[in-house]
Amino acid sequence: MSMIQFENVTKTYGDGTTAVDGLSFEVKAGETLTLVGPSGCGKTTTMKMINALIPATEGTISIDGVSIDDCDTIELRRSIGYVVQEIGLLDHMTVAENIGIVPDLLGWDDDRIENRVDELLELIELPLESGKQYPSELSGGQRQRVGVARALAANPQVLLMDEPFGALDPITRDSLQDEFLEIQSELDVTIVFVTHDIDEALKMGDKVAVMRNGDIVQCDTPKTILSDP
Ligand code: ADP
Ligand code: ADP
């Protein structure tokens, strides 16, 4: 069953730049696809189209078998978690409030939100007391973990991660990668993970799609790519 499907998708921006050019791929339910390639090859544009933040110029994008043209955009975005490099936690809100933003928007009652926040703090291995802290009191790595927890809060079907660990020092990045791989096995979510770092792509993906100039030039398992001369 394919959770995300691109069929011949092209995106040309208003200034004439074609950022994505005839792109086709699918991500099966529960799978992690990493998109890897140099800056400017169209990774972020691809992510923004999955989330319906920008429309495709041509082609069809389907989520869980439904064309996003036929989806309610607000509902679609709520079923998709998005983690970016500069995580954008709200500084005037506590960690718990930040994690609870989407459940709150969805009208969950307070007890349910509180339970979910505690569950997620445990998942990202922060002490429950951290829920009362403010983002400025956390380290960069902890803030990035909170960003992941916030994206997962309402049990999204799809998790988009755009250079999620890109702003961290190499040691913190490495440990967050390892932690995330552990969490992943407990989650029932389909992931697209963007990076320009081939080592990270091979480590994090069930499948790795190599992008150049707005299209995928190779898509395989890490094992196959590593054995390819
Ligand atoms: P990546 O994430 O791989 O760095 P992007 O998707 O951000 O690539 O960008 C792909 C191409 O589209 C680049 O040439 C970039 O300059 C261009 N681009 C991105 N966003 C816009 C925009 N809003 N308007 C015009 N061109 C854009
Ligand atoms: P990334 O670091 O993800 O590759 P960029 O630095 O390419 O992102 O772009 C940052 C922001 O600027 C994005 O929102 C992108 O859409 C926009 N952008 C990038 N290139 C252009 C461009 N040539 N014209 C207009 N906007 C652009």
Compile the SSE list and pairings:
Elements lengths: L1 E11 L5 E11 L3 E5 L6 H8 L7 E6 L2 E2 L5 H6 L1 E5 L10 H5 L1 H5 L4 H14 L16 H13 L5 E5 L7 H15 L5 E6 L2 H7 L2 E6 L2 E6 L1 H6 L2
Parallel strand pairs: 3-8, 3-9, 6-7, 7-8
Antiparallel strand pairs: 1-2, 1-4, 4-5, 9-10
Bound molecules: adenosine-5'-diphosphate (ADP) (2 copies).
The site of one adenosine-5'-diphosphate has 3 residues, from loops.
Structure write-up:
It is built from nine helices and ten strands. With 229 residues, the chain is of the alpha/beta class. The strands form two sheets. Strands 6-7-8-3-9-10 form a six-stranded mixed beta sheet, sandwiched between helices. Strands 2-1-4-5 form a four-stranded antiparallel beta sheet, covered by helices on one side. The longest helix is centred in the last third of the chain and has 15 residues, at 170-184. The radius of gyration is 18 Å and the shape is globular. The model has no long low-confidence stretch (mean pLDDT 94). The site of one adenosine-5'-diphosphate (ADP) has 3 residues, from loops.
What key phrases describe this protein's structure?
single chain, 229 residues, alpha/beta, 6-stranded mixed beta sheet, 10 strands, globular
